[in-house]
Specification:
The protein is mostly helical and 319 residues long. It is built from ten helices and five strands, in the order ββααβαααββααααα. It has one domain: Up-down Bundle (Rhopdopsin 7-helix transmembrane proteins). Belongs to the G-protein coupled receptor 1 family.
């Protein structure tokens, strides 16, 4: 337990990104472009899946939820970051900080559970193709989504309530956003309960999903190696290649940010990894899932053709 000058903290000061004033406008334009790309890319994936009946399958239902999670996850921190880059003094209220922490945990944990559900979907599709429609029924898919949402809401709310019971010292400066670990470093009261719950629930949110995904792909690889056709092997790997890329990006940034602390240049490293985790990953996911994805590209062509025909038909009718 840390002791210090205990005060009623009404706000926290945000250090922001370690960039000079002469580079402020450049980085502002860069992060604004990245955020707009994230919003438009994930909205496009969601709209395509909603509008095209060919994409009304379990895999793309899970993908639309992942895109929604990425969109919201980036929106938890990016608008505030962009606002702070244009202001001289960056701060966030106590209530606003807890709210940001809650939604940050909510959508980060949700993505972890969704990646597990998508790994299971790929496992069934490749290892049991003849039973795919029976196993991955709409009822099971909906059940996986409801379970993911319920677990993440409960875990995020529990962490937020445990954080709200703490008192904070006079030092109220945090680095970039209201991360749970950053707030615990400022607490003056006993944080043993918080640390215990982080250890227990962290295993549920990170370790267990990672092991389930690893187990799914171990069985997928074992099943692929039994296929004698080179074309079948390439098709199987292309089916799960996008998901593997997203999993690697997601867990790679988590490991770099939380599990591999660095004594030298820790602030710069934490800044880079935080940007990767909250900005780059949600921006890249739509590109990963759309590039070389015949279903997404086909849906885009069908909808574009439909709208084009509708537009010219309306114009000819008016003439």
């Amino acid at each position: 337990m840390k002791m210090g000058n205990q005060t009623v903290v009404s706000e926290f000061l945000l250090l922001g990104l370690p960039i000079g004033p002469d580079q402020q406008d450049l980085f502002y334009a860069l992060f604004l472009a990245m955020y707009v790309t994230t919003v438009l890319g994930n909205l496009l994936i969601m709209f395509l899946i909603q509008l095209d009946p060919h994409l009304h399958t379990p895999m793309y239902l899970l993908l639309s939820n992942l895109s929604f999670s990425d969109l919201c996850f980036s929106s938890v921190t990016m608008p505030k970051l962009l606002q702070d880059m244009q202001s001289h003094i960056s701060s966030i209220s106590y209530a606003g900080c807890l709210t940001q922490m809650y939604f940050f945990l909510l959508f980060a944990d949700l993505e972890s559970f969704l990646l597990v559900a998508m790994a299971y979907d790929r496992y069934v599709a490749i290892c049991f193709p003849l039973h795919y429609t029976t196993v991955m029924s709409p009822r099971l898919c909906l059940g996986l989504l409801v379970l993911s949402w319920v677990l993440t809401i409960f875990i995020s709310l529990l962490h937020t309530l445990l954080m709200a019971r703490l008192s904070f010292c006079a030092d109220n400066v945090i680095s970039h956003f209201c991360d749970m670990s950053a707030l615990l470093k400022l607490a003056c009261s006993d944080i043993q309960i918080n640390e215990t719950m982080i250890f227990i629930l962290g295993g549920l949110v990170i370790i267990v999903p990672f092991l389930l995904i690893f187990s799914s792909y171990a069985r997928i690889v074992s099943s692929i190696l039994k296929v004698r056709s080179a074309r079948g092997i390439c098709k199987a790997f292309s089916t799960c290649g996008s998901h593997l890329s997203v999993v690697s990006l997601f867990y790679g940034t988590i490991i770099g940010l939380y599990l591999c602390p660095s004594a030298s240049n820790s602030t710069i490293k934490e800044t880079v990894m935080a940007v990767m985790y909250t900005v780059v990953t949600p921006m890249l996911n739509p590109f990963i899932y759309s590039l070389r994805n015949s279903d997404i590209n086909g849906a885009l062509r069908r909808i574009f053709s439909k709208w084009t025909i509708s537009f010219f038909s309306t114009s000819n009718f008016k003439d």
